[in-house]
Amino acid sequence: MTEEPQAQHDESAREPRQSREHRESRGVPKGMLVAVTAVTVVVLLASGGRTWVDGQVSDAVLATSSVGVSGRDAAGGVIAAALVAAAAMLAALTGGRIVRRIGAVALALAGVLVVALSLPVLTDAAGVVGEQAAAQTGRTGSIEATGSPTAWVIVALVAGAVLVLCGLAALVSARHWGGLTARYDSPAGDADADESDRATPQESDWDRLSRGEDPT
CA-to-CA distance for 79 and 75, rounded, in angstroms? Predict the structure, then answer.
């Protein structure tokens, strides 16, 4: 007689865990998005110290000289966007339902910002070199120069597009994810709590006195 209630208890304890696993299996896997986002952020942070544009200027002060412009100088906002993407992915990973959606949108917007900052460097490399040369001489504006983008600009553009895709995928899949604390919830503990709530409370001394019984 006691085996059947125990079996029902074990089955009810497994149901929340199975439901949670089924929910998290839908959409894009959380671990995959986290890994792709992390690698992309690392690439963007590393690109900040690399040369994005190589060029030459011919000026009375600088004479004819070569100028290399790093990603940090050519598009400094890319580093900030990469950090925002990392924070947004963390929020989408650990937050509640609304926070996950906000984090996914922020991740996609960070990718859009990376693309928006990198594209002008690709299309106007000479202008980037001219502005950097003028800054080196303490002048404003730009100096006539020639320049060509390096592969790091393309890398940044691709990384930005990847962040956009990760953000959109997270936005679609985040509703199926559990929060960070949901993974550590104990279904058995919840079932035990439900049983204790359904348990019949003991009678108080006042109830027994009201029936004329001696509570002692």
Answer: 8
